[in-house]
Design goal:
By secondary structure, the chain is α/β, with parallel strands linked by helices. It contains three helices and 17 strands. It has helices at 2-29, 172-182, 191-200; strands spanning 32-33, 37-38, 45-47, 52-54, 58-60, 65-67, 73-75, 79-81, 86-88, 116-118, 123-124, 129-130, 135-136, 141-142, 147-148, 156-159, 164-168.
Length: 201
């Protein structure tokens, strides 16, 4: 029993050291990386790190797969992400006659790669997939297993395949009160912006 416990502790320590070591270099290679960003490169796959823009106070748990080859990935502050996240900012071009899609050696169009934005104060459950062009509105929750193919408004709770708005965390009056406590005046959403965003969803 003691040997098994020692082996587990040793494995955890090795993973911690690998994450610290490789995490340092990955963060240095990003477009921008703020403070308090936790990533797990020992168990994750990150491609296109020069297109990553992380504001800070971010946790990305184990087994993440993030591909951002041409478009950018922006993640705001105070974002918590559970294991098995998948983010893909691009797609194959499928309209060219005489080319195998597998080869991928022909020019992409602007619409083939689109930025992904995860605004601050968001929580993404386990095994969430986010596809190109999606914006997760500030203060939102993405339910476990969701496949997000379109953007969601601030303070929404979304889930399903494809994901849709299930409900909102707060009423508009509650959001205004919430943001007054947390954000400066120029950062806060106005009532009009929140109403318009909800109408679009």
């Amino acid at each position: 029993m003691k040997l098994k416990s020692l082996i587990i502790k040793t494995e955890v320590l090795h993973e911690f050291i690998r994450d610290k070591f490789w995490g340092y270099f990955i963060k240095k290679g990003m477009g921008n990386c703020g403070k308090n960003v936790m990533i797990k490169p020992s168990t994750s796959v990150f491609k296109g790190i020069e297109n990553f823009y992380f504001k800070g106070d971010l946790k990305i748990a184990r087994y993440a797969v993030i591909y951002s080859t041409e478009a950018k990935l922006y993640i705001g502050k105070k974002v918590d992400i559970a294991p098995y996240l998948k983010i893909i900012t691009g797609n194959h071009r499928i309209d060219k006659v005489g080319y195998f899609m597998f080869d991928g050696n022909y020019e992409k169009r602007p619409e083939d790669d689109k930025d992904v934005v995860i605004e601050g104060d968001s929580w993404l459950g386990i095994n969430v997939t986010i596809l190109a062009g999606v914006t997760i509105g500030r203060g939102s929750i993405v339910a476990a297993g969701a496949v997000v193919t379109k953007s969601c408004p601030p303070y929404s709770i979304i889930g399903g395949i494809p994901a849709k708005v299930l409900k909102f965390r707060f009423t508009i009056d509650e959001i205004l009160k919430h943001e007054k406590k947390l954000y400066s005046k120029d950062e806060r959403f106005s009532r009009e912006v929140l109403i318009a965003a909800r109408k679009k969803s």
